[in-house]
Specification:
With 497 residues, this protein is mainly α. The protein has 18 helices and two strands. It has a two-stranded antiparallel ribbon with strand order 1-2.
């Protein structure tokens, strides 16, 4: 399979959107493009599994490489492993759901859908890039649309939120760029090629400087404590599809970068900073959970909950075991689907009630049975109910973390587990207050979900259940990639006690 299709398809879709004459044409072109991306992602999954079943053990499949800037050793180098395929599938799910949920957007429709598709272009390019300069290029492409989506189509303090998000993420990007340049200029063989760098023994001195730059830089994107403050404001002000893309896709760019770039090419640095990563992850998990309990706005509830759930991703990476890293990737996929669905449901409720305050809603199950039923499902997934993706992902992280026999990591694992109790409290309280009780005055004429909203919700629910009921396909997809990363790390972690 030619991986450039994952870049060309959203690019052509975005161009086609700009050529359309009216909003109806724009929406259907965007939906056609998102559907094509969705199908292409599953074709990639099928071909990838077929190659592996046929005995192809090459680390990266479907590689292609073209010299782009030879004097700087920059090449257009693409390839995928199981981890990349999992993230591409997640992106495809969120994109098609986001397009469907945004069907009622009337303000600058053409520009809105163009930015959504452009964001997906950046995400696909990021997940398949094996040249770090090209990877950084696509990371920046994924940042710019977020600023505009919040600043133009957002609500509340949208200018403040857009500026805060842009400044924080650009700061993270700057750290990433400095880290990449540090690696490039420190070695005798100057290269941005991820595969080549992974084979080099980068001096420990370089790793001690560049690893925290890269990890923190990417960590800003995935709500690494204390650089998480853009998340609540950004999510609360963004339009529904913007929130879905932010939480479902953009925050996963950071987790993927922490794992694929920082940890993989600098295993000694990962070992040296592992304890710090674990501490910050546990703080994020607990802080996010307790902060969520204080929120009254549904979007803020989901935003702070995302800080907590993304903490599990970083915890899985920081534990430096094959199982925990597999769990980290599964958590990225699970949280991406779950939080995108949560924001979609919140958007549906807000569009009808014109409020996101839990205290101002009650009895909505009587008027919106489909929407509230989906709210129940995503809430139960968030608190880790068996049979849904949240349980599988978090349990895998916990099991991988518990593999370490030392007291420090065991205590960190136990503290992280305690957050589940807090999660259950705020999720059940929010759902009960919203769905149950007498119907508020003025809500008698509320309508249930439309066809596009139902389709978007069912697509994301299907992904959540597919992982929750039959997690082995995702584990088998991701685990070999985690094993390869561990082959780099294991020599440095064997001495852990």
């Amino acid at each position: 399979m030619n991986l450039t299709l994952l870049i060309l398809l959203p690019l052509f879709t975005a161009i086609a959107i700009l050529l359309m004459r009216n909003a109806t044409q724009v929406k259907w072109v965007a939906l056609a493009g998102a559907t094509a991306q969705f199908i292409l992602a599953f074709v990639l999954l099928f071909l990838f599994r077929q190659e592996r079943a046929g005995g192809n053990t090459t680390q990266m499949l479907f590689e292609l490489q073209y010299n782009w800037f030879p004097s700087w050793n920059i090449s257009f180098h693409l390839g995928v492993d199981g981890i990349s395929v999992a993230m591409i599938l997640l992106t495809a799910f969120v994109v098609i759901a986001g397009v469907l949920v945004s069907w009622n957007v009337t303000k600058m429709t053409k520009e809105f859908y163009f930015l959504l598709i452009l964001l997906s272009l950046g995400a696909y390019g990021f997940f398949i890039s094996l040249d770090l300069f090209i990877l950084f290029f696509f990371l920046e492409i994924a940042v710019i649309p977020k600023y505009l989506l919040i600043g133009i189509w957002g609500s509340g303090k949208k200018e403040y939120s857009a500026n805060k998000l842009a400044l924080m993420l650009m700061g993270g990007s700057a750290l990433v760029l400095v880290g990449l340049l540090g690696i490039y200029f420190s070695g005798t063989e100057r290269s941005f090629d991820l595969m080549k760098l992974s084979q080099l023994n980068i001096p420990i001195e370089t790793q001690m400087i560049c690893f925290p730059l890269l990890f923190v830089g990417f960590g800003v994107f995935t709500a690494l404590f204390p650089f998480h403050t853009w998340v609540p404001d950004g999510h609360s002000s963004a339009p529904t599809a913007g929130s879905m893309f932010l939480a479902g896709i953009s925050m996963k760019l950071g987790g993927y970068g922490c794992l694929r770039v920082a940890t993989y090419i600098m295993p000694d640095g990962a070992k040296e900073y592992a304890n710090i990563i674990i501490v910050l992850s546990v703080i994020a998990i607990l802080y996010g959970a307790f902060a969520t309990m204080m929120q009254k706005d549904l979007k803020y509830i989901n935003a702070y909950s995302s800080v907590s759930h993304c903490g599990f991703v970083l915890l899985g990476i920081g534990m430096l075991t094959k199982t925990s890293m597999t769990g980290a990737v599964m958590q990225m996929v699970s949280h991406g689907l779950m939080t995108a669905l949560f924001f979609a449901v919140i958007g549906m409720i807000y569009e009808r009630t014109h409020t996101r305050q839990v205290s101002e809603m009650s009895g909505l199950l009587k008027r919106m049975p489909f929407i509230i039923s989906i709210l129940f499902i995503v809430g139960l997934c968030s608190l880790g109910l068996p049979g849904l993706s949240g349980f599988v992902a978090e349990m895998t992280v916990f099991m991988g973390s518990w593999e370490h026999p030392d007291t420090f990591r065991r205590v960190a694992t136990i503290l992280a587990c305690l957050s589940i109790v807090v999660t259950a409290v705020y999720i059940l309280r929010a759902i009960t207050s919203t769905a149950m009780g007498p119907l508020k005055a003025g809500y008698e004429t509320l309508t249930d979900a439309t066809w596009n909203e139902k389709l978007a919700a069912l697509i994301l629910v299907a992904g959540i259940i597919a992982i929750g009921v039959a997690p082995f396909w995702l584990n088998d997809l991701v685990s070999p990639g985690a094993e390869i990363i561990m082959q780099k790390i294991s020599p440095v972690t064997t001495g852990i006690k």
